[in-house]
Amino acid sequence: MAVELTYQVKGGDFSHAGDASSQVKKVLKQLDIDPKKIKSIVIALYEAEVNVVAHALEGVIRVTVDEEKITMLLTDRGAGIPDIELAMREGYSTASKEVREMGFGAGMGLPNIKRNTDLLEITSEPGQGTTVKMVNFF
Amino acid sequence: MKNNTLNSTSKYHAIKVDPAKCFGCTHCMKVCPTEAIRIRNGLAVINDQRCVDCGNCMRVCPADAFYILQDDLSRIYDFKYRVVLFPSVMIGQFPDHISEGQIYQALLQLGFTHVFEVEQPIQWLIEAIREYHRDHTDHRPLISSFCPAIVRLIQIKYPSLIDHIVLVKAPHDLAAHFAIEKLKQQGAREEEIGIFYVAPCSAKIVAVRRPLGEKESIVNGVINMNELYNRVMKVVSKEEPADNPACREHLTREGILWCLPRGEARLFKKRSMAIDGIHNVVKMLEKLEIDDVPEIDFLELRSCDQSCAGGILLSGNRFLTVERLQRRSRHYPLAAESSPEQEIKEKVVGRLAADPIAPAQVFRLDADLARAIEKMDKVNRIICQLPAIDCGACGAPNCHALAEDMVMGMAKMSDCIYLQQRWQKEGKITSNRAFSNLEKTWGEGRFEADCNKKGARNEGF
């Protein structure tokens, strides 16, 4: 048995960035998951969600919660990441000036996600889009 | 769990529903920040595990159906020394032409022997909070424990933030100890002293009677501020009495401003924030939970708009109350310049530390994860059947809450009036059956034509 949740994310819609992560947070609280674990999960998902908003045209978040873990799969259509290794470095950012002025895109995204997840897989096709898979164990 | 941790299942609430007045209009159910209210049999029912005593239900009730328990005022005569202990916000609600002196005089006329404003030894509280801030560097921002509705909200809904709460007792505790010590200095014995606290809101009443983070309350009785306001207005004399400075001997500017917005936050020289209104507070706590806030030192969070000036038991307009108190505060010295007796300070300050607060899991679907997942999955499937209109006709605040109630065994599919309509169209149930289902939520005869039924003429709206 598992809980499946799906959220659509629109590129450029910063005012709604974080909606999916707060929904997931509510669900995890009702499942009585350890608050510290919830925090890590939601921080990672929020960062990933903001990345879709900041860099992609549109995306889908699919969340599966079972007894052992939460799996979060973000698939977007957009620019993609040409060099994932470079993007994983602290402080590296390709976010535009406008995005940074809104307080996003400080370049901490991917490393912060890595710190807060147990498993992180990123695959990207430049010009096509990116898929981010994050798994956290309870 | 440590022995001194308060048992989170023992709940006491000051807000009650009067079945003679309530007609199940759903206003309260819609504004409750913890979705604690349901309509059953035509009446609002409060879930005492979820209620944080914020008083929003009472504020929106068009039928005046909520009331707040209080002690009988005649109980003061059980004591030789009868102290009325009131937060200075009380003074602020009176019209300008009634002076502090006239209010003190009226209180003595009502049978009290000593009038005492709560915020007098505020400097000791300021020092205690600053010390706590200095010694507890693990959690930032620290969250004020002043507003009991907010402390309860964090306890049930934001358990990961419990460690941010400043575990220092409330001003009324400090003031009660201070008043007792002062009277003892004058020769009174402790058992002869009755401390009666005048509460500005339902949450403070609960905090005084069943304190969270304290073993027992030091106050002997609680009086609702609106009740006392009415009594004072009745007996207040038109003459200005001789000044009675003992009532406010140690009152300071900070003390008077304490219960207003930024009353605590203003004392933090570093970055601080003050948020009033429980729905605004919820938004900030949601962000704080995921670390999505800048580095802030101190958060003052108050459930009522305009903090205690908007308390549910105050009578005046909240903005006028704030204005009068701000004006009043200018005539008082700064807290750092006041010096309540050092001898008393030593006896009182040691009692300022509050006990730890235990989280209460009142929103979880099940303690067992596998079962909780099953229930959550069921909620998601039920949601597909519901209309997403959030009409409240089922007796739950929204469709999602109804779905949760269903998996918790507290509601049925047939509670949804739209589903019933669909079933009738599909020939699955008879209209008689559908109607009797409706009456289970709203009470028998609720849908008979009746020009005089409660609420029919928008009375009170």
Overview of the structural elements:
The complex is a heterodimer of chains A (138) and B (461). By secondary structure, chain A is an alpha+beta fold. Chain A contains 5 helices and 5 strands. Chain A has helices at residues 19-30, 35-55, 84-87, 97-101, 109-116, and strands at 3-10, 56-65, 69-78, 119-125, 129-137. Chain A has a 5-stranded antiparallel sheet with strand order 1-2-3-5-4, with helices on one face. In chain A, strand 4 (119-125) and strand 5 (129-137) form a beta hairpin. The longest helix of chain A is centred in the first third of the chain and has 21 residues, at 35-55. Chain A is globular and about 40 Å long. The two termini of chain A are 15 Å apart. The mean pLDDT of chain A is 87. With 461 residues, chain B is α/β, with parallel strands linked by helices. Chain B has 3 domains: 15-68, Alpha-Beta Plaits; 73-349, no CATH class; 369-429, Electron transport complex subunit B, putative Fe-S cluster (3-methyladenine DNA Glycosylase II, Chain A, domain 3, Orthogonal Bundle), CATH 1.10.15. In chain B, the strands form 4 sheets. Chain B has a 4-stranded parallel sheet with strand order 6-5-8-9. A 3-stranded parallel sheet of chain B has the order 7-11-10, with helices on one face. The longest helix of chain B is centred in the last third of the chain and has 17 residues, at 369-385. The radius of gyration of chain B is 24 Å and the shape is globular.
The rounded distance between the terminal residues' Cα atoms of chain A is: 15 Å
Write out the strand line-up for the largest beta sheet of chain B, numbering strands in chain order. Answer: 6-5-8-9
Topology, number of strands of chain B: 11
Major sheet of chain B, described briefly? 4 strands, parallel
